[in-house]
Amino acid sequence: MGVRAAILNRIVAALVPLFLTCGLAAAGDSARLDDLFTRLQTAEPAEAARIESEIWIEWSKSGSPAIDLLLQRGRDALELGDTGQAIAHFTAVIDHDPDFAEGWNGRATAYFQAGEFGPSLADIAHVLTLNPRHFGALAGLGAIFEDSDRPDKALAAYRAALAIHPHLEGIPEAVERLETEAEGQEL
């Protein structure tokens, strides 16, 4: 086992209990978000996509125009593939408001895209502590586990994301793929 794999194993071992218990924490969701999540559970796919967009809009409201601007700059840099600049912007968001989950989520995504799984996992832990219903962070966690050749943990993270958002794009297919691979290993 390489040094990177050993370090990743230690990080995963330390963070998995947090991920499994994050659903117990209250994130101070508004009544609007509660309603959106309730509707998401029974929505048809097209309606679920609209509800998901509304949830992302709610999650992206920091309450500060300056932080909202930094968040958008980070997202723009990420879209352009400039992960270094994205990380810098998201870090500024976190420095100004460490309780704003989307700053952590944006940086986790940027770290993931930069191939830095350890820092991404650490930021996902913050996201899920602040917002236990963050299906995007759970999907990202699944992707990290899958890329790290941990299919059982990936499957658990993807299933947790689907429990919150049953129509999350690409995740039902990921669950099906991982379940099929697991069945195929029992020869």
From TrEMBL:
<dbReference type="InterPro" id="IPR019734">
    <property type="entry name" value="TPR_rpt"/>
</dbReference>
<feature type="signal peptide">
    <location>
        <begin position="1"/>
        <end position="27"/>
    </location>
</feature>
<dbReference type="Pfam" id="PF13432">
    <property type="entry name" value="TPR_16"/>
</dbReference>
<protein>
    <submittedName>
        <fullName>Tetratricopeptide repeat protein</fullName>
    </submittedName>
</protein>
<dbReference type="InterPro" id="IPR011990">
    <property type="entry name" value="TPR-like_helical_dom_sf"/>
</dbReference>
<feature type="repeat" description="TPR">
    <location>
        <begin position="135"/>
        <end position="168"/>
    </location>
</feature>
<dbReference type="InterPro" id="IPR044650">
    <property type="entry name" value="SRFR1-like"/>
</dbReference>
<keyword id="KW-0732">Signal</keyword>
<keyword id="KW-0802">TPR repeat</keyword>
